[in-house]
Amino acid sequence: MKHSLFFFLPLLLIACKPYSSPSPKKVLTVDTVFTSGMAEVHGMYYSHLERNVYSLTLLSKGLTMRGDTLFGTGSELVFTDIFLPSDTRALQEGDYKVDSTATTFSALSAMEFEGAITGTYLLLLSDGLPQRVYMFPSGSFTLRQWDDTTDMEIHLQTFDSQTFDATYRGVIQYR
User: Fold this and answer.
1) In sequence order, what DSSP letters do the residues of 30-51 get, joined into one string?
2) Residues 135, 121 contacting (CB under 8 angstroms)
3) Which of 60, 61, 82, 175 is the most exposed place for a label (fewest CB within 10 A)?
4) What is the C-alpha separation between 57 and 120, in angstroms, rounded?
């Protein structure tokens, strides 16, 4: 009996470790108010997918785009691959997931591809030069439209579990 106690006592102590509350949510604090949006329609870009592909860029105050070049200081939120049904001609209202599935109503997770960042990411710029990039492998956004106005509520998560929440209300220009 004495030997049993020495065997079970350590197990009992391990099983009775004190409860620890979950660690607080890490929030990515970037002062970003998006003031303009641009989208591009790429059509059925990937031959093996029966989906249209779109890209969407949101710019904060202080940034302007001329051609493909950004000028100023601010933040650029990029979704390089948004997947929608093949019969669409513009971004659609709905709830989108950020993941790597390429299913309809999803946006591609952030990744490095051939030395470049693609997918969903936030780029911080100063005088048009990149200062920092945050890559988002997961998250979601909701897109609502009325007349020419688009409302977006965005919830993204970095690889190290920081959350980034943002909104956009305005016109999305198609290029």
Assistant:
1) ----EEEEEEEEEES-STT--E
2) yes
3) 175
4) 10
